[in-house]
Design a protein that fits this description.
This protein is an all-alpha fold and 163 residues long. 79% of the residues lie in helices and 0% in strands.
Length: 163
């Protein structure tokens, strides 16, 4: 077996991890925030729109992970092209390029959910503070965006390397 035949599977593993781990983090995060939102809406249904926005914030990491996965699949030729051009070295690079989004997406979505829950509590007591309450979970989003940028720049440029 030629070691270069492992290039595509390694790249696919990286893409799968980016989508799966970030998606799992988002599913957990949206679920946690949804529980808090449901409690608020039970008491005051007029706050549904505000708490829904706060509940959805931890869902962005899953979108970012999916974006990295699609970009990786497109770059390695799985979505149209020649996947045989992916050497072992390039496959390994794609794998590692996907990891920032995979792990930061998983971790940040869970923690963004905690900030969202606190913000949902703030909106429950002081709905006029909705604008301020959005800032708190958005600060956690910053780190998901940074991981997205690292993975995006790495995945987009691996194909240009002469490996």
């Amino acid at each position: 077996m030629d070691i270069n035949s492992l290039g595509v599977p390694l790249a696919l593993l990286g893409a799968a991890l980016a989508a799966l781990l970030a998606g799992i983090g988002s599913a957990i995060g949206v679920g946690i925030a949804g529980e808090a939102a449901a409690g608020v809406v039970t008491e005051d249904p007029s706050k549904f729109g505000k708490v829904l926005v706060l509940q959805l914030l931890p869902g962005t990491q899953g979108i970012y992970g999916l974006l990295i996965a699609f970009l990786t699949l497109a770059n390695i030729g799985v979505l149209g092209g020649d996947p045989s051009q992916v050497t072992f070295a390039k496959g390994l690079l794609y794998f590692f390029a996907c990891l920032p989004m995979a792990f930061v997406g998983l971790w940040s979505a869970k923690h963004q959910a905690r900030a969202s829950v606190a913000s949902i509590g703030l909106v429950a007591k002081k709905p006029e503070q909705f604008g301020k309450s959005m800032i708190l979970p958005a600060m956690v989003e910053t780190y998901a965006v940074l991981a997205l940028l690292v993975s995006l720049l790495a995945v987009a440029n691996i194909g240009k390397l002469p490996l």
